[in-house]
Amino acid sequence: MSDAYLYAAARTPFGRFGGALAGVRPDDLAAAALTGVLAKTPGLDPAAIGDVVWGNANGAGEDNRNVGRMAVLLAGLPVSVPATTVNRLCGSSLDAAIIASRTLESGDADVVAGGVESMSRAPWVLPKPDRAFPARDVTAVSTTLGWRLVNPAMPKEWTVSLGECNEQLQEEFSISRERQDAFAARSHRLAAAAWDEGFYDDLVLPVEDLARDEGIRPGTDPGRLAALKPSFRPDGTITAGNASPLSDGASAVLLGTGEAAGRIGLAPVARIAGRGVHAVEPQRFGFAPVEAAERALRRAGIDWGDVGAVELNEAFAVQSLAWGVDPEIVNTRGGAIALGHPLGASGGRLLGTLAKVLRERRERWGVAAIRIGEGQALAVVLENVSDEVGQG
């Protein structure tokens, strides 16, 4: 079996809910990310792409059921390039990369993976009536985030809001509001510094005059965050400041076998060395990445002592703090609290950022992990295969 390698990564800036990208359809965002990653490989014949695997958590509106195929067509790729769209909620684009890596290892195709979400443009939906001509009112349900049209057979404790799930997590691990706010302030500080230092310049392509992630607030500090009201409980700890915002954006990664380097025209930068998936009770989804990462590490044949960088999606600060990984190696270039969390795009962002952080820090091994609503998580171990790896 062949190994799967990451050759290039690109993403759009992540826009605020109702912000600069709110007027851009999700299929156009997806096409922009796809075009951007392929622009890094001008020698690659697009017709040679064996498949496109795309992540999307919504699919209820302009995502158009198979937004991966829409992206291929809108980006002007040959109509012979196939595409599929996968949905594992927040983990959709990381799942797309995992599926793509298995495709490569089996020898089926060279692939592009990625994901997109426009939470601003997520539509309202109406359930179909159970009979013709109902006389009662019907409520339009937002598809932006969380459970909707819930099956009444589901236990109530499983279907509480994402915020309430994480209030329960902070109770379980005794994680104070102060620690959460400090973590959130760190995310903004590191993200702003990364942009100022040019870290994201070759990873992010401008869209609609937006050239930088829109949600970063460089002046954020724990004192200012402490003034925000709790969002889910009157006496709670989770606020709009220590949770990731609703966002719009897309990401893409180009994956191939080692033998594909000649066709792609680039040397690979990272190898997908291990993958892990795990599930728990839906309300405990915030803690699920712990075991997913352990499984990915075991499959890579390494342990935490070998890991030099971690990209963990910061859906909520409390989730990141509950994991207990050395904070000095986690999200050193900012995380989703500052950068944004367009659900279907975040996994691709994690992989692209992790591969670059490994090169920057001259580390060999890194972990990308993401928790997923409804009680799941994914993790991927990357091995830095560029020349920029320290000795020992």
Q: Can you walk me through this structure?
A:
The strands form two sheets. Strands 1, 2, 3, 4, 5, 8, 9, 10, 11 and 12 form a ten-stranded mixed β-sheet that branches. Strands 6-7 form a two-stranded antiparallel sheet. A hairpin with a 3-residue loop joins strand 11 (about 365-370) and strand 12 (about 375-385). The protein has a domain at about 5-120 and about 245-385: Thiolase/Chalcone synthase (Peroxisomal Thiolase, Chain A, domain 1, 3-Layer(aba) Sandwich). The protein is globular, with a radius of gyration of 20 Å. The chain has helices at about 25-40, 65-75, 90-105, 160-175, 175-195, 220-225, 260-265, 290-300, 315-325, 335-340, 345-360; strands at about 5-10, 15, 50-55, 85, 110-120, 125, 140, 245-255, 270-280, 305-310, 365-370, 375-385. The protein has about 400 residues and is an alpha+beta fold.
Q: Which helices and strands occur, and which strands form pairs?
A:
Elements: E1 5-11, E2 15-16, H1 26-39, E3 51-55, H2 67-74, E4 83-86, H3 92-105, E5 111-118, E6 124-125, E7 141-142, H4 162-173, H5 177-196, H6 222-226, E8 247-256, H7 261-264, E9 270-279, H8 289-300, E10 307-312, H9 317-323, H10 336-339, H11 346-361, E11 365-372, E12 376-384
Parallel strand pairs: 3-4, 3-5, 10-11
Antiparallel strand pairs: 1-8, 1-9, 2-8, 5-8, 6-7, 9-12, 11-12
